User: Fold this.
Amino acid sequence: MHEEPLVRWDWIGRNWPSIQVLLADHVVMALVPIVIGLLVALPLGLAGVRWRWLYQPTVGVMNVIYSLPSLAVFIVLIPVTGLATRTTVMVPLTFYAMAVLIPAVVDGLSSVPDHVRQSAVAMGFTPLRRLLQVELPIAVPVVLAGLRVAAVSSISLVSVGALVGRGGLGYLFIDGWQRQFYTPIIVGIVLVVVLAAIADLLLVLAQRLLTPWSRARGAA
Amino acid sequence: MNWLIDFFGNPDNWSGPDGIPVRLLEHLEFSGISLLLAMLIALPLGLWIGHTGKGALFAILSANAARALPTLGLLVLIVLLMGVGTIVPVLIPLVALAVPPILVNTYEGLRGVDPDLRDAAYGMGLRGSEVLGRVLVPVALPLILLGLRIAAIQVVSTATVAAYVGLGGLGRFIVDGLATKDFPRTIGGAVLVALLALIVQLGFALVQRVMVSPGVSQRQTIR
Assistant:
């Protein structure tokens, strides 16, 4: 076997268009589950706070779902959603996101101090306005912390989908393995980590924008 | 359902080097070794960082960055670089996967202990190591165990992927089944891995009930 350089830059240049296609596919498959997961977790989390008895069973079910290995779930889903489709990868990732986000929403809403809630009531806030203008903003840091975990793991897990034929950048791992060729694997790892870092950074920025008071307090 | 009967009902799948018992043992072997190594690295480090507060920012930042590493890619790369002669190349990514949750949760657990409690322990004349062993660790135990549980489940799940690079374990059924279009085999393997993960989850719930002091478990645990 001849000596192989770790990264062959000319390969990256020649294959950049197809890498971009994989990258876009990866972003879609990672992003959609997080968004849907959040949209489902918000009402379920609210329900969990309002009706406490609902919360423990929900968390139990979510813990069970979270412990199911992604590859196993992809495979069980193939007869339903098809081999190598985006849906096969996105459905389990949506449930993983929910498993992280529902407790985050519940913890976030529970972190609203009681005197704050009572002040809002005393000021004549309707329950809906209280939720939107007082409780949810206070819950933002905890929810966003959950969202960061969900985003990073979603981005990293999409690549496992490559084993069932649809894994975005994960395809580069399979390609590199089959050809005993380092470059695609390294490109894939670097791009996944960069994607995760960008997502994390955006969420940190979102937190700063959504909770201006925490900065004001820090400066004072 | 018929697929499951095809797979689990076939006596050939229950014996020999490619039988369910052998594959299960292999799976448990490298999951167990990886988890043990990760514990040996992450627990002392997490305790030290959490207790002294030294190097916390660096450790937590690198642990979070490590979480973003795609295991499949890491696995493929390391095995390609080191060859598949032993299980060592497969242990590296699994350990890398298990260290961050254990480290971060141990650290967060110790940090989250009420400072008054810590002061009271010192005030009672306990030395640093006694405060750590008798007060901080018991109080932080739910979070530490949560970290171990997350790590264990991730290792058990990901050890499945290891079959792709030629390793044994339950993932073999999935990968071989996919390669030969033997769908009952694939589904059977997936179900076995899922069951194993659930058993691990359940096992940790029991350990938590036994190990965590009743006074502490009143407290709500944070994810």
Remarks:
- Chain B touches chain A at residues 64-65, 67-74, 76-77, 80-81, 153, 156-158, 160-161, 164-165, 171, 174-175, 178, 183, 186-187, 189-191, 193-194, 197-198, 200-201, 222-223 (CB under 8 Å).
- Chain B has one domain: 2-214.
- The two ends of chain B are 35 Å apart (CA to CA).
- The longest helix of chain B spans residues 128-161.
